[in-house]
Amino acid sequence: MTASGMTMARPKGTFSERFVRFWNRYLLFIFTGLAILYLMAPVIVIALFSFNDPAGKSNFVWQGFTLDAWLDPFGVAGLQSAVAVSLGIAFASTIISTILGTLIALAIARHVFRGRSATNLFIFLPMATPEIVLGASLLTLFVAIGAPPFFPLSAGTILIAHIMFSISFVVVTVRARLAGFPTHLEEAAMDLGANEITTFRKVTFPLILPGVMAAALLVFSLSIDDFVITNFTAGGTVTFPMFIYAKARIGIPPEVNVIGTIIFLTAVGLVALSTVLSRRRTMRDERLARMQIAEDHK
Amino acid sequence: MGGFLRRHKHAVPYLLLAPGLLWLTVFYVLPGFQMFMTSLWSGTLETGYEFALSNVSNYTEALTRFWPQFSRSILYGAAATALTFAISYPLAYTIAFRGGRYKNLLLFLVVAPFFTSFLLRTVSWTIILGDTGILLGPLKEIGVLPAEFQLLSTPIAVVAGITYNFLPFMTLPIYVSLEKIDKRLVEAAEDLFATSFGAFRRITLPLSLPGIFAGSLLTFIPAMGDYVNAELLGNTETTMIGNVIQNQFLTQNNYPTASALSFILMAGILIAVAVYARLLGTDELTAGGV
Amino acid sequence: MNPDPETRGRGLSRRHFIQGSSLAGFAVFLAACGRAGISNAPSAAPSAAPTAGSTSGASVAPSAAVEPTPKPTTSAELNWANWTYYMDIDPDDSNKFKTLEDFKAEYGTTVNYQEVIDDNDGFIGTIRPQLQFGQDTGWDLIVVTDWMAARLIRLGWVEQMDPGNMPNVVANLQDVYKDVAWDPTNDHHVPWQSGMTGLGYDHKKTGDLTSLNALFDLKYKGSIVYLTEMRDTLGLTMLKLGLEPSTATTEDCDAAVAEIKRAQDEGMRAVFKGNKYAEFLKSGNAVLSMAWSGDMIQALLDKPSLRFTIADEGGMLWTDNVMIPNGSQHAYTAQVMIDFCYRPEIAAQIEAYVNYICPVKGADQILLAENPDIANNPLIFPPPEILARLHIFNGLDEAAEKYFNDKFSTLTGLG
Fold first, then answer.
1. Where are the domains of chain C?
2. Contact check, Cβ <8 Å, A140/C129
3. What is the mean pLDDT of each run of 10 residues along chain C (415 residues)?
């Protein structure tokens, strides 16, 4: 942290000062590289073992190289549907919980109203509740209702549960973005005659977008990886984590590693692609936005 | 719509809150209430349960009996939070201020490992951290470490596991708050305070406090209740309160104790959040009422 | 995973084979060891063994498959929750289960077969409210271990079955499994697979092990795994102390817990693991573990220096059972399905993949011809001298179960 602060190098100073600055700057990048490596280490091992040729049912000791698992990644009964179910639920719950959570974050950060502190406090509770008790009591609720769409259990009930535990994470993340943000931009837009909706679309939303994206990433990773609550609300539906937990008894097949690797590569690849395109797009968007506000004003 | 909103300005925050809070009320508060009732039960699965307010003793008994696991959860949770912070801040800083056009990609690399399964990642860590694994094997081979040195099944492994698994929950909020800092402000401060560290301490760090606060909560709260890392990477001396709740609920079928433990955990977390908010002085910034 | 029997044979052939009719042995063993919780018919052993010497071997299955007369019609679908690797993968299509395809071909029923059980407590926890409210759990067949099966019957959470719907079960269930104390009417559960709990160890590191004392030998400190399954860990410890797990009392429990505590206090640093113990053995994080027989057959393929042994003092025997949970929508078809799996040729087909201990008479005879490696594997069809050393843990009532669990949780850091 100290290092990071000192890296704001200015092109002045003695040789030794410059050396220190250079070193610190260097160190920051080394540190970042190491941190990324640390984050990637398990993924690298997962990818490596997707090429393993295990003699038995488990995939824990390196036995030899093969492409078998890659040539038929869904060659294990139940894997394909499990992955499809998990991706579907993850996308749906990310979209819905991000919207619901962002609205709450906006209300808390941008408005003064009765019950604000209580709402504030309340938001932490779902994050602090042990999953097992949450999952079990949610299941009891569904069974007690005993009618569709809550019962019989289905992918829909899993979705309900995932949205429920994701909302708080969205609220806290988006609020970190909104906290201390000056409101004068919004006020200015309103003064210029833009209504609430336009102000939100043209001013507020672009401002909070990085926070919203970060929140969406977080809750996507929460949803696609949840086992405990899912297990209680799934009924006969099997998600990717449930599939893996059941297999872990004797051995996770390399096909699962392939799927894990593919999900990772696809996600990173898509973002890499969009990175290439994004710069131009943002520049164009900003220009359009400016023109739009001017027009609205007219 | 716009006109309606302008006429009923006071209604706006409630309209914003309504859908999310409704969802939480039905799918969190209702089950939570049922959980609360359960915590005041006595009896067993086979004899049936009875509700009585006097069963509030469930709470005191649970707290005294499982105090070691409670204190261990606080300790591990705090240690993991501190570690994620130490790793995340420089990481988020680099991405926010030096990421350039690769910002999004770098950011994504931080989260993408968590799109693969938790169990797969942990298996990988056991391969890496194992007694004769990729990390310790060579070190033992050349005699740097004694042959009986272990990482797996120790508190170090548990804290390391929690640190790893909640890292993005710290990195992303810090990044989000760093990213919005006006770079010109930092430059001006550097001129003003003469050293870049001074500028960092007086401008960058305070402005990123909301992110640090949010990140700490997103890490500490779930870390306290975590049980999977302790189960897979730990030993009998590293059990956390989450493991006890799991065991009481599923194996012992002791639903009242499991529920009581959950409420104690939640209360403890809320107190910790309040104290932390005071210490960091971010009340007015982020938490308002907390 | 690799269902290829040849690969397996390679691993298995390293082991010494013990010849002889294991079925006969199984019966003898049952007569030999008195078991509480499971009361065996006293005279059953010698007579019920499918003519022990029936060396005619593979040619004739002792009891031919009897076609059930389907009174009601079988349903179009059936929902079955099972443990992983408990059903044979179709050798021609790794996305299908051969036995279930065969069943569909014959009865037209599509089986929605899901491997969702990785833990008795964990799975039952997910359907408990339905069972309590008397709602459909979504499953027509579930598979749980003896003690959980006993608990479900005690709670009245499973459907009664009609033996008339299951002629193959009546004819082919090994006698040892009949008349258990916890299912007095014998019509709420059907055994699916059995397994043994014994010593799993790395022969290269430990040499031959024959005694449970090894589990308490400080020589292996920091490299030893006990199981989180209370009945296995306390059971083996009782055997080590010369106590009888099949009649385990609270005093026996205290003695076993004290013994483990003593070892831990002396610095044993044993790790308690559930499903994960095999990984500890394979990765070298442990050289010695309490282990389940079927898993070790698999682990052997990854690490040939691993061994599984039932120690001189004995080992534990447990069974996973098929049951029909309350509220099942297809209870009749479920029974037809169970019965189908009790045809010796189907049982043999399943066994060739599953590798635990098969409860169906005649399956070994068929395997002897088709897959002698499996039929002769002492871990799959254990010979009499091994069976004689196995014990089934006492069927505990709720109060005793709570006492045992509470004591055990003090060992695992959960009490």
1. 27-50+72-194+318-385, 196-317+395-411
2. yes
3. 36 29 32 33 34 37 51 90 92 93 97 92 92 91 96 95 96 90 91 96 96 96 94 97 96 98 94 88 92 88 92 96 96 97 96 92 92 90 90 92 94 91
- Sequence-separated (6 or more) residues with CB below 8 Å from residue A263: A224, B115, B116
Chain B residues touching C302 at Cβ < 8 A: none
Give the orientation angle of helix A79-110 with respect to helix A254-297, to 10 degrees. 30
Nearest CA in chain B to C123: B250
Architecture of domain C196-317+395-411: 3-Layer(aba) Sandwich (3.40)
CB neighbours of residue B241 within 10 Å: 29
pLDDT given at position B288: 39
Q: Which CATH number fits the domain that encloses residue A181? A: 1.10.3720.10
Neighboring chain B residues of A113 at a CB cutoff of 8 Å = 10, 13-14
CATH code of B91's domain: 1.10.3720.10
Domain extent, residue B161, equals 71-239
Distances B202 to A13, B186, B190, B195 between C-alpha atoms, Å: 22, 9, 10, 11
| Count of domains for chain B | 1
Closest CA to B257 of B30, B64, B121, B128: B64
Do A143 and C125 count as a contact with CB atoms less than 8 A apart? no
Residues across chain C: 415
User: Across the interface, do C405 and B45 touch by the CB < 8 Å criterion?
Assistant: no
DSSP, res C373: H
Looking at the structure, tell me whether residues A111 and A186 fall in a common domain: yes
User: Could you list the residue range(s) of the whole structural domain that residue A91 is in?
Assistant: 77-252
Partner-chain contact A196 B207, CB within 8 Å: no
Single pTM value for the model: 0.85
**Which residues in chain A are contacts of B165 at CB distance < 8 A?**
none
Q: How many domains does chain A have?
A: 2
> Which residues of chain A are within 8 Å of residue B180 when distances are taken between CB atoms?
177, 181, 207, 210
From chain C residues 302-361, the ones with a CB under 8 A of any chain A CB are: 302-303
Of A7, A121, A214, the CB nearest to B172: A214
The answer to whether residue A68 sits within a structural domain is no
Q: In angstroms, rounded to a whole number, what is the distance separating the alpha carbons of residues C258 and C252?
A: 10
**Chain B residue closest to C156 (CA)?**
B46
Average pLDDT, chain C: 84
In chain C, what residues touch B141 (CB-CB under 8 Å)? none
The per-residue pLDDT for B282 is: 54
Averaged pLDDT, groups of 10, chain A, 298 residues long: 43 62 75 92 92 82 88 91 96 98 92 86 89 89 89 94 97 86 78 83 87 93 93 92 84 90 90 76 72 68
User: Do residues C322 and C336 lie in contact, with contact meaning Cβ atoms separated by under 8 Å?
Assistant: no
ipTM at complex level: 0.89
A60 vs C97: CB contact, 8 Å cut-off? no
